[in-house]
Design brief:
One of its GO terms (cellular component) is cytoplasm. Pfam families: Hydrolase_6 (PF13344), Hydrolase_like (PF13242). This is Haloacid dehalogenase. The strands form 5 sheets. Strands 5-4-1-13-14-15 form a 6-stranded parallel β-sheet, with helices on both faces. The chain is 32% helix and 21% strand. With 346 residues, it is α/β, with parallel strands linked by helices. It has 3 domains: 144 residues, 3-Layer(aba) Sandwich (Rossmann fold), CATH 3.40.50; 110 residues, HAD superfamily/HAD-like (Rossmann fold, 3-Layer(aba) Sandwich); 68 residues, no CATH class. The mean pLDDT is 94. It contains 11 helices and 19 strands.
């Protein structure tokens, strides 16, 4: 697998038989639909692509997630949902005998997953839990964080469902589980283990659950979704409907780079051109081109200004920037503009 962008001469839904789809910022935003998500996923399914929804959100039951997706026009069953709560519970089994006490800080999804794994759920550090399992839930506050800190300070194993610092909502970005975990870490000095993305654990679990010939990971965050794809050896598609932007793609470090870039989930239904190296340092994608000269990114725009032309400019810019950085050259980040912003719809 290449370290740069790849191409696909056929629509992604025809090439890959399984897609691991992130939820917040990809399939929906908070409780609101994302333009193109239902159309893209429904059409991909009709072409034979199977879907598993893989989320770092550990607060909700798979049944609740599937119900919300279905209400938004994306048919889903609970068996097609893989949560960070399930991954955290599996991580507990690698060190902790079943029947042990676990203090759960989080929502119903995490409580259910920990119990299903064979553990006794407690709510107080005075119950002497062997581990603390921490996941996001809107109701988590100081009393729960304090109990977690007391337990971890007394030697309990701290397992976080994920370390996302922010959470996309319909109103903007709110503190995520990583921010809440950070409070416990600051109080105890103990670095937690994490089961969620960017660890590829959930991806591997999903593939093992359903089987696949070729798997595509789809996400909106470079530091979790796409980093997890790179870590697990999966092809990763970045859709520009959530946290990370096209500019973030261009400036991405190697371990967080996407393999493919699309505006939204309708990008599953089209082919993706691969950047080609041209003369004088230019990288070309159809009518768009980019190069790095004297440490600055230069753009060669296509004659038209369609959505695909703008995406091609992003792809060419990524190829040029990554090639320069990987060759040991400097890239001035101030020379990298915000691109494709008009493709991201509220």
């Amino acid at each position: 697998m290449t370290g740069g962008l790849v191409g696909s001469s056929t629509p992604l839904a025809d090439r890959f038989d399984l897609a691991l789809v992130d939820l917040d910022g990809v399939a929906y935003r908070g409780h609101e639909p994302i333009d193109g998500a239902a159309d893209g996923l429904t059409s991909a399914r009709a072409r034979g692509m199977r879907l598993v929804f893989v989320t770092n959100n550990a607060s909700r039951e798979p049944e609740s997630v599937a119900e919300q997706l279905t209400e938004l026009g994306i048919a889903a069953e609970a068996s097609e949902v893989m949560t960070a709560a399930q991954a955290a519970a599996q991580l507990l089994t690698t060190r902790l005998p079943r029947g042990s006490k676990v203090l759960v800080v989080g929502g119903a999804g995490l409580v259910t997953a920990v119990r299903a794994a064979g553990y006794v759920v407690v709510q107080s550090a005075d119950d002497e839990p062997a581990a603390v399992a921490q996941g996001f839930a809107p109701e988590v506050g100081w009393p729960q964080l304090a109990e977690a800190a007391y337990a971890v300070g007394r030697g309990a194993w701290h397992v976080a469902s994920n370390l996302d610092l922010s959470l996309p909502t319909a109103r903007g970005f709110a503190p995520g589980n990583g921010s809440l975990v950070g409070a416990v870490r600051a109080a105890t000095g103990v670095v937690p283990d994490s089961a969620g993305k960017p660890s590829p654990t959930m991806y591997d679990m999903a593939v093992e659950r359903v089987g696949a010939r070729e798997t595509l990971v789809i996400g909106d965050r470079l530091d979790t979704d796409l980093a997890g794809a790179r870590a697990g050896g999966y092809i990763g598609l970045h859709v520009l409907t959530g946290v990370s932007s096209a500019r973030d793609d261009i400036l991405a470090v190697p371990g967080e780079r996407p393999h493919l870039i699309g505006a939204d989930l309708r990008s599953l239904l089209v082919a993706h051109p691969e950047p080609q190296q041209g003369p004088e340092g230019w990288w070309v994608v159809r009518g768009a081109s980019a190069r790095v000269l004297d440490g600055r990114l230069e753009l060669g725009r296509a004659q038209s200004s369609s959505a695909e032309d703008e995406l091609d400019l992003v792809r060419a810019s990524c190829a040029a920037a990554w090639a320069a950085v990987d060759a040991g050259l400097d890239l001035d980040p101030t020379s990298v503009p915000e691109l494709a912003t008009e493709l991201v719809r509220d």
